[in-house]
Specification:
Blueprint lengths: L2 H33 L2 H5 L1 H11 L4 H24 L7 H39 L2 H7 L4 H40 L3 H11 L2 H29 L4 H31 L4
Helix pairs in contact: 3-7, 4-5, 4-7, 5-7, 5-8, 5-9, 5-10, 7-9, 9-10
Length: 265
């Protein structure tokens, strides 16, 4: 067998083993964060302070993006439904598209790009400047004091941001279709209320956003804590956070949607 083929097989095997090993380390770290979360519960002000950085500072991009996504959905939906004489159902199209799918997914992707990368960079920089080591020397657990509050702030803020994204999207669809185009306002809201179900639509979107929040924040805190203590290492960890979180969101979305369509949830 040629040496080039053998070398290629060895490289593939090495990457697979390294990926499995890293997944195991990440799972162990996730369990450690959950185990060390008692400090975040007792001193909830730590979580509230991090909520400002992960949630409040992400509001601008969530609100603006949700508004424009809803406006685009309204335009596209009206153009399509008008061909079949059902333009009054554009409210249903906008609401179901946002609540079921686009709201949680797009909000999670934006959250990963803005808050997830910031969490990774912040923890990685603290590691590079030996602040985490200084905490350990002073008998302060860095996982309980630094990692856990950021993890729970992301878990709490992600569903709220997804809900705000969906609300702004519905408002954007209303602006385009009712205010600008002239669709009947009563038909827009009444058909939306008749079609959107709390359990199968709103709750399923909420469950998705909760899973996305856990996945994105867990990846962000792990990549930051595991980053090599160099400028290059922190930048690489930030990039991995965004890429891995985006792939995790899309994969989880498919899995959760498949279960929800089968009525599991």
């Amino acid at each position: 067998m040629p040496k080039r083929i053998v070398s290629g097989i060895q490289n593939i095997g090495h990457r697979v083993i390294e990926s499995v090993w890293r997944l195991g380390v990440a799972s162990r770290f996730f369990m450690l964060v959950l185990f060390k979360s008692g400090t975040s519960v007792r001193r909830f002000n730590l979580v509230i302070r991090e909520l400002y950085f992960t949630g409040v500072l992400s509001l601008i991009i969530i609100v603006v993006s949700g508004l424009f996504v809803g406006m685009v959905l309204g335009l596209q939906g009206y153009e399509t439904l008008q061909k079949y004489g059902s333009e009054s159902a554009v409210g249903t199209l906008v609401a179901l598209s946002l609540v079921r799918e686009l709201g949680p997914v797009v909000a999670a992707l934006l959250f990963a790009s803005r808050a997830g990368s910031a969490i990774t960079a912040e923890i990685g920089l603290m590691k590079a400047t030996e602040q985490l080591s200084a905490m350990s020397m002073m008998a302060v657990d860095p996982v309980a004091r630094v990692v856990a509050p950021r993890f729970w702030s992301g878990v709490i803020s992600m569903p709220l941001l997804a809900a705000i994204f969906s609300v702004m999207g519905v408002f954007g669809g209303y602006l385009v279709t009712v205010v600008f185009i002239g669709v009947d306002e009563g038909s827009f809201w009444s058909q939306m209320q008749d079609s959107v179900d709390f359990r199968f639509d709103i709750m399923n979107g909420f469950i998705k956003s909760c899973y996305f929040g856990v996945a994105v924040t867990a990846i962000a805190v792990f990549e930051g804590y595991d980053a090599p203590p160099t400028a290059e290492g922190v930048s690489g960890a930030t990039t991995r956070t965004v890429v891995t979180s985006s792939l995790a969101i899309l994969g989880l979305d498919f899995i959760l949607t498949a279960f929800m369509f089968r009525g599991v949830s």
